């Protein structure tokens, strides 16, 4: 993204868990009996390094889980794909009652976690990284498959 007009849009933000659940439901339940989704509506997402650093700075983050959702596009009256990222970790590293669990769990909301031998409360956020292609595309990329159209800048 090279234009100044979109710089303000690059601010990552956390969303309430209920909002994230709604957006993910919008994706999972998208047009089940109607018009199929057009794959060119969601070709890719671009995320700033600083946004990943902020996400990875959450305590106990060992992994990042990415969820696809759909949210209402401002002033357009349509849904657009979005990418929601959460911290994740091995259950055994978070919950002392599960010492052998290799299950990777999402760290979302307020959770009891093991820290320096003590159980403490930590709050983990869900981040919205919704700079998708379209419109933020690199149509010259070898990974951009298919024809570009007016939705891609």
Description:
This protein has 153 residues and is α+β, with helices and mostly antiparallel strands. It has one domain. It is 16% helix and 33% strand. The protein has helices spanning 17-28, 49-56, 91-94, and strands at 13-15, 44-45, 63-72, 79-90, 104-107, 109-115, 118-124, 126-128, 132-133. The termini are close together.
Overall pLDDT: 83
Helix content range: 10-25%
What is the C-alpha radius of gyration, as a whole number of Å? Answer: 18 Å
Query: Would you list the SSEs in sequence order as H and E?
Result: EHEHEEHEEEEE
Beta-strand content: 25-35%
Form type? elongated
Uncertain ranges: 1-8
Total beta-strand segments: 9
- Count of DSSP helices? 3
Number of domains: 1
**Distance between the ends:** 9 Å
Structural class: alpha+beta
Give the biggest beta sheet. Answer: 5 strands, antiparallel
Write the layout of secondary structure elements.
Elements: E1 13-15, H1 17-28, E2 44-45, H2 49-56, E3 63-72, E4 79-90, H3 91-94, E5 104-107, E6 109-115, E7 118-124, E8 126-128, E9 132-133
Antiparallel strand pairs: 1-8, 2-9, 3-4, 4-5, 4-8, 6-7
């Amino acid at each position: 993204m090279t234009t100044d007009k979109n710089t303000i849009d690059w601010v990552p933000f956390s969303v309430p868990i209920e909002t994230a659940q709604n957006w993910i439901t919008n994706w999972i339940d998208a047009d089940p009996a109607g018009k199929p989704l057009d794959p060119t509506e969601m070709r890719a997402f671009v995320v700033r390094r600083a946004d990943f650093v902020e996400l990875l700075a959450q305590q106990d983050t060992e992994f990042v889980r990415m969820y696809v959702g759909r949210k209402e596009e401002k002033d357009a009256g349509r849904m657009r794909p979005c990418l929601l990222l959460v911290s994740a970790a091995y259950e055994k590293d978070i919950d002392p009652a599960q010492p052998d669990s290799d299950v990777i769990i999402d760290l979302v909301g307020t959770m009891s976690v093991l820290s320096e031998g003590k159980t403490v409360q930590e709050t983990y956020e869900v981040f919205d990284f919704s700079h998708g292609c379209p419109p933020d595309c690199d149509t010259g990329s070898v990974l951009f498959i298919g024809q570009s159209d007016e939705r891609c800048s």
